[in-house]
């Protein structure tokens, strides 16, 4: 079976001031994600979750093992992989439309093709009418919607999402979760999603991976056997959520939160 993204025996080491030898951030990572699958990663702060995404995108290369996208080893940034972060990183001097177009500009998509793609995505992300606004004129939730539109504009096969909604208020977060889930489902996109919100992980994912403290290793995989992955609002309302959340909290040894 072929996988969209695969981590095979992956480890990453970084130099530290405290130790003469580089220290492991993550170690012994083995992970396979099929096309159209959404996998969330949770774990304590500093366990290497973001390092995992950076290796998936080609921004970091593993010290040991290999990362593969569509069966090809990652040796640098990968065209079909897109990254979305907690900070929207919109360019303040560009309109929202032109921010969404930036990836297409880099890919040398003709100008006459960029505009309708950007406007269609902004409409899909509930930003119709704000195309000519600048980032400072939008709320945090609207800016993050624009960042999602920008991520989707390059039509990636794989989305790497690093706590993209963690800075938003609860209501805005749920709206964006709904938008993201519907898009991933409709377009059969593959996603690797980092979050510290256990309910968010359950609501959005096919599988949840729990990582240990540093050096980060995958200590358990939970398959989320619930319907409505395209509709996290419905999943949130299901009583089956509670025992999954309790199990995750037990694994993470937390009382009421995880970071």
UniProtKB/TrEMBL annotation:
The ABC transporter domain extends over 5-238
Give the UniProt keywords, A-Z: ATP-binding, Cell membrane, Membrane, Nucleotide-binding, Transport
Q: Which InterPro entries match?
A: AAA+_ATPase, ABC_transporter-like_ATP-bd, ABC_transporter-like_CS, ABC_transporter_ATP-bind, P-loop_NTPase
Identify a single GO molecular function assigned to this protein.
ATP binding
Residue ranges crossing the lipid bilayer per the database entry: none
Query: Does the keyword Membrane belong to this entry?
Result: yes
Q: Which Gene3D superfamilies match?
A: P-loop containing nucleotide triphosphate hydrolases
Give the family this protein belongs to, as stated in its UniProt record: Belongs to the ABC transporter superfamily.
PANTHER family to which the protein is assigned, alphabetical: ALIPHATIC SULFONATES IMPORT ATP-BINDING PROTEIN SSUB, TAURINE IMPORT ATP-BINDING PROTEIN-RELATED
Under what name is this protein listed?
Answer: ABC transporter ATP-binding protein
Species for this entry: Lampropedia puyangensis
